Amino acid sequence: MLESVRVTVNGRAYEREVEPRMLLVDFIRDELGLTGTNIGCDTSQCGACTIHLDGKAVKSCTLLAVQADGAAVTTIEGLATDGKLHPMQEAFREAHALQCGFCTPGMIMTAVELVEQGGELTDDDIRHALEGNLCRCTGYENIVRAVRAAASPATV
Amino acid sequence: MATQVIETTKLVGAPVKRVEDERLITGAAKFLDDLKLPGMAHVAILRSPFAHARIRSIDTSAAAGAPGVIGVFTGKDFESLNPLPCAWQASGTENFVNTPRALEIERVTFTGAGVAAIVAETRAQAEDALQLVEVDWEPLDVVVDAEQAAQSGAIQIHENAASNVVMDWECGDAAATDQALAEADVVVRQRLVNQRLIPTPIEPRGSAADFDRATGQYTVWMTSQAPHVMRLLMTAFVFGIPETKMRCISPAVGGGFGTKIFLYPEYVLMAALAERIGRPVKWMETRMENYAATTHGRDHITYLEVGAKQDGTITALKAKTYANLGGILSTIAPGIPTTLYGRMLSGAYKIPNIHCQVLGVYTNTGMVDAYRGAGRPEATYVVERAADLVAAEVGLDPVEVRRRNFVPRDGFPYDPKILAGLSYDTGDYEKALDRALEIVDYEGFRREQEGARREGRYLGIGFSSYVEICGVAPSAWIGTGGQGWGAGLWESANVRVHLTGKVVVTIGTQSHGQGHETTVAQVVGDELGVAMEDITVEHSDTQGTPFGYGTYGSRSAAVGTVAAYRSVQRIKEKARRLAAHMLEASVDDIEYADGKAFVTGSPERAKTIQEIAGAAALGYDLPEGDEPFLDDTAYYDPPNCTFPFGTHIAVVEVDGETGEVELRRYVAVDDVGKTINPMIVEGQVHGGIVQGVAQALWEGAVYDEDGQLLTGSLMHYAIPKAGFLPKLETDRTETPTDVNPLGVKGAGETGTIAATPAVVNAVMDALAPLGIRHIDMPLTPERVWRAMREARG
């Protein structure tokens, strides 16, 4: 009763036979060995598993792997290009926006999509956009600062 | 006791970017669940659906035949293993101890206790098979409230604990306190509930294990803040084997907040299963398991009596506290509400008469143990609510009451008489208060508040002028003959300068977000005159690091990093001897600075640390009596704890219709002594504040009367989101400690300790026009609305 899934992850094409009940996050972690995407809950609250599915930030625990058939996925491992960190990754480091780092991959993926949407972002906008991602270490203060910096590098 | 504080420059005190970050922002860091061992099997644990029940029998046959299942185990399979130890019992009184086993055998005393384990080829198969295990349960009566459990007539959960009392502990002078209360101008009495919290690190717990038949050696990976202690407790107390037969490793750990200090049944279980099935095994907690079976925090009911003079001088404080410790004891549960709570009830004030009685109580709820702050948030809540209640009673400004009672800046060291011989090290409490008042513009706020009140709006301001105890050590003070901690609490570090001049520092503490790899390198780099990138800091593996007690109680900087500092001093001494030999000078004429040993007055006659390390490593030509290599291990046991302090101020507006509390501003001025890395300190303060605010406004674990956890997942338990909070305004004053040569006090818990009463005091200030003096936390709209409705009649 296995189903075939074809998916492009971080620019590379994969084809796997999986159980229909397999979650996308487990597919990414266990089938593809991309363990940067973390699992922090079982009710889709924490957002640690956030990835990009066809350019949109989604919690990869809310989808089955088979639902991603034909899609393009980007995970935290695919964010840096040519050995150069993504500006959001840089901003997180510069602003000390992470401590234990467990929520960080999901937080960064959400923040990247937010900034890619363009437009002016107030701190309130940023705080609301991060509602689906929980962090227990930073109190969000420096995460907001990092996202603001990445959104408008000139005003850092 | 006093040590001269060394003025350091360069790296120490600078906001150096963390060396840990690159692997964490790229997804390269390896957490427990990322571990994949060859041949690894997966474990799922069957947990009790009842809060109190006898296990009549367990039928595992159907589960054993399920697809992929390798084995099904129950408590009887591990009967030969001892129950887990209780490593910190309350001092000076008998403790009636009951602790968990790898899997419970006869009875469970809280919902979520493990009773059977499935080992299967995949995690999904293990979880599927759980449903096939048949347990014949005999449900028993349940009690969940600590105060009720301690009354006569309550059901008795454990045979050895009459009235469900784990321990009846006290500190202070009961007779003198009663007399002072009788003589006080005013006495305020208040029942305070410090509700149960679920700590919620975003990474749940997990463990993996492997057993090497060739050597008889266990390797256990675990999400632990204290791998050395885990090894000691598992080998010496549970398995009864030499500690050399086990290696414990913490991979990257995704937050702990105390919950990952303790020895849990699952770590024992993984080691035992790996041996039993002859394959590596792994178990990763689900969030719901984390809520049910990982420790909770707080859960005190306190009867407070505080006496004062009409001028606001506090003359007596008496507290009787019921501390709910859950259905069975976690590793250091009795120590938290005693030493770390009762002994801090003087707060930042000179209170001449204090008495505290604590009843630790068993109930049919999850285990309760240290959660960020651990005892000190509970103490600060009592003291800071007391200060405001006194202010309201005598009609004084709460700021003025604090000033009148502060330990004055020339009053240090200060012995509050309830600290069992320790004294507050250094402090300037008014300075931090004044700075916070300046930032918040106190007079301006009171004017705004007056205007708002005329418009029928409820604006409030709340203060928390806390002091806390951290850098927890003095082994003789904390240990078996003192406060009952079953070991020492010194720390260790080893510093090696390799042939190429690269430095490796191994430490006994464990970093799970605190940035030790950065801060320890800052200290070592400055002292040795070596660049950050030439220093590697290793931790979290019992193989290859010196024994240390781990990371909690804000002790890693004030105890652990000082060990590294002392080790470097001895490395420098040896470097001077070697340089003297190399330069054909007298060692008395050699100075060490900026990475070089040189002849006093002739800085060109010098050898770099790299040259000296090379000569030491080759060993061709060493001074007589010196051994090769620059290598030193230091064990540091400080003479006192450290006592950070500060003032936090919350500004709130309460919606008079709905009871909703808006946190409008939050100002924090902390004094953590010298700072190694102000960026990291500020980050710790931010995170701590939000956890403390969350207790005041949102969080609370709720059990129903059957002992079912109603807040059993992240859908039901309100940990804060980014949108809940205003921008945090933080600043520091700097009063170095004289306890250690770095002048550092510790910064990991100040925010959590300070924030909760600041917010509650602010809400009570907002509601003062209605005559409301107290509402128990969390101050949800419903609770505030009910209080307002009652007050309005």
Fold and architecture overview:
The complex is a heterodimer of chains A (156) and B (793). Helix content of chain A is 30%, strand content 16%. By secondary structure, chain A is an alpha+beta fold. Chain A starts with a strand and ends in a 5-residue tail after the last helix. The mean pLDDT of chain A is 96. With 793 residues, chain B is of the alpha+beta class. Chain B has 19 helices and 26 strands. In chain B, strand 17 and strand 18 (503-507) form a beta hairpin. The model of chain B has no long low-confidence stretch (mean pLDDT 97). Chains A and B meet through helix 2, helix 3, helix 4 and helix 5 of A and helix 1 and helix 17 of B.
Indicate the topology.
The complex is a heterodimer of chains A (156) and B (793).
Chain A: E1 3-9, E2 12-18, H1 24-31, E3 50-53, E4 56-59, E5 72-74, H2 87-94, H3 104-116, H4 123-129, H5 141-151
Parallel strand pairs in A: 1-5
Antiparallel strand pairs in A: 1-2, 3-4, 3-5
Helix pairs in contact in A: 2-5, 3-5
Chain B: H1 21-25, E1 41-47, E2 53-59, H2 61-64, E3 69-74, E4 107-108, E5 114-120, H3 123-130, E6 134-139, H4 146-149, E7 165-172, H5 174-183, E8 186-197, E9 206-212, E10 217-222, H6 227-239, E11 246-249, H7 265-277, E12 281-284, H8 287-293, E13 297-308, E14 314-326, E15 353-362, H9 376-394, H10 398-405, H11 429-440, H12 442-454, E16 458-467, H13 475-478, E17 491-497, E18 503-507, H14 516-528, E19 535-538, H15 556-583, E20 590-593, E21 596-599, E22 602-608, H16 609-618, E23 630-636, E24 645-654, E25 661-671, H17 678-697, E26 728-732, H18 750-766, H19 781-792
Parallel strand pairs in B: 1-12, 10-11, 14-15, 18-19, 25-26
Antiparallel strand pairs in B: 1-5, 2-4, 2-6, 3-5, 7-15, 8-13, 9-10, 9-12, 13-14, 16-24, 17-18, 17-23, 20-21, 21-22, 24-25
Helix pairs in contact in B: 9-10, 9-18, 11-12, 14-15, 15-16, 17-18
